[in-house]
Amino acid sequence: MKFGDILRGLLEETETTQKQAAAELNLLPATLGRYIRNEREPDIETIKRIANYFHVSTDYLLDYQSGGTHSHTEDEVLRIFRLMTPKQQAIYVEQGKAVARLNKKEETAKSS
C-alpha cells in the first residue's frame, strides 16, 4: 500500500480534514494533498511528525513489516486495539476468540 493511501485512510478514520491535519503538522495544505495523492513523499522528519500525530509507527505509515507482524492488516488490528479502552479491548478479544472458534468448527465440518 502506498504512503498516500495509508495517510488518506487515517484522515478518514479520524474524521480529520486535510486542512486541519496540515495546520497541526505545520504543513501547507497543498503539500499534504500531494502526499495523499502519492505525488510526493515526505522527508523523514515529516514522516515522524505524521506518525506521532496519528499515533502510529513510521513502519505503519510506510507499510513496512520489520518482523514483528506479518502484514499491514495485522498492523492495523494492533493499532486499533491500542486505541481502545481496557474494557473495549476485552470485548474485542472475546469477539476474536468467537470468530476463531467458528472458523475451527467450519474447518472441522469441511474435513468430515
Describe the structure.
- The protein is mainly α and about 110 residues long.
- The protein is about 70% helix and about 0% strand.
- It is built from 7 helices and no strands.
- The longest helix has 26 residues, at about 85-110.
- The protein starts with a helix and ends with a helix.
- The mean pLDDT is about 90.
Low-confidence stretches: none
Sheet/helix structural class: mainly alpha
Number of helices: 7
Q: What is the CA-atom radius of gyration, in angstroms? A: 18 Å
Q: Which sequence of SSEs, written as H and E, runs from N to C?
A: HHHHHHH
Number of beta-strand segments: 0
Into which percentage range does the β-strand content fall? under 5%
- Helicity, as a percent range: over 70%
Q: Main beta sheet, described?
A: none
What would you call the shape? elongated
Average pLDDT, all residues = 90
Keywords, please?
112 residues, 7 helices, 71% helix, elongated
Brief sketch in words of this structure:
Helix content is 71%, strand content 0%. With 112 residues, the protein is an all-alpha fold. α2 packs across α3.
Layout of helices and strands:
Blueprint: H1 3-14, H2 18-24, H3 29-36, H4 44-54, H5 58-61, H6 72-83, H7 86-111
Helix pairs in contact: 2-3
